[in-house]
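Entry 12.
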Amino acid sequence: MTADASHHHLARQALEAHFGAENLASLVGAKRQFGAHLKPDLDKALRETLAPYDPRLLGLNPASPYDLLSLSRLLSRSEHDQVQLSPVEYQEIDVGDDQPFQAIRTALWLLTVDRQPVAVTLSDFYEGPHRYVFVEVIHSGAGTEFRKALFESLSDAGARSSIYRGKILSFEDDSGHSGMTSDITVHHPEMVERCQVVLDAATLKRIDHNIFAFDAHRAALKRLGQSTRKGVLFYGPPGTGKTHTVRYILSNLPDRTTVMITGEQIYQLPRYMALAKSLQPSIVVLEDVDLIGRARDMHSVNATEAMLNNLLNEMDGLATTADVLFILTTNRPEIIEPALAMRPGRIDAAIEVPLPNHDCRRRLIELYGAALTIDPATVSAAASRTDGASAAYMKEFVRQIAQTSLERGGDGQITLADVQTVLADTVENSNHLGRRTIGFSRADSQLIQPS
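Predicted 3D structure (tokens):
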């Protein structure tokens, strides 16, 4: 640095002192735009990359975040446009950890590279409701190699982002009112162990092959020239455990970042896809894909097909080397089938999550009733008499038999009579719609007869 910039009040004055007033006209400014979600990674990479040059860090106070900060703005002599220096301000960014990330808000670094003055700026820019991060390198012709190396470092930092690894991201509004800055909402996946996934062996085998084995071998697949972009559709009646299965997958793929698209947010599909592409290896989850058109168009089937086609087109636009796994779920595969038929090759596997069979119903009772005392014969009898029940109903069924036991003073000791009471109530006090709502569509003829 050619002069001390600490006593200056304007960015232009600091740059004049650093580069020399006679050299300002020959300066070159080159900038890169990044998604706002990468601000923590960029902040970290900038500090680490610039640290060996012992830079001077100054804060900047632009008049408006809706005006793009650039070299010409920094050098402006207009009273309206000139940029003031300020103390360095930090913003707390919620990245889903116990402590927020402390990121520099807007900054100007002044440094010397190979005895040549260089400046680097970090700033935010709002375009409509969306925020972006800009990094600009200011130098004379001699700083070109440094600029290239810095931008490569920043691009690598984005591509290797670890801050959000193993977490779930969405663009939902943060209802916590924490006061922290965040353009995305960060969630930690609920941990679901293998023993908590009660599915038949054939279904689990298909999940293992299409999800976990695929993920484990993706590097080798790339080496063999095979695609690492994959789409999987889970389908089945309501309450069978599709969402629970998705949670199991997400919590057991910690090296991937998950992007969760809700039906209300489907109109932001391009933003979600940009997020998924920048945070590879990633997972894109869209649950209840058959419902995504209903809120926006009364012609639900046509709207659903159009929305799904948009998603499939986005999938098609990815390179075959993209490390993006798409997971879709639906209760009504017959609605989305036409769209899938018109876009073959985007959904690579359709896996049914069926109603639980007798063995699965028995295991569900044992899983949800682990704290109850219930003999194997009663468990088997209950499983036999709940044919047609969903996994969701089985969870509620166990809660009901536990409550029935408590009401009669059994303190969690479950009898066959408790089971009979709950099943009788399901049939006698629920109409057909009610039984379907709780996931027990064939309850009418499945009562346990008193022994």
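Annotation: Residues 300-316 form the longest helix (17 residues). The CA atoms of residues 312 and 344 lie 9 Å apart.
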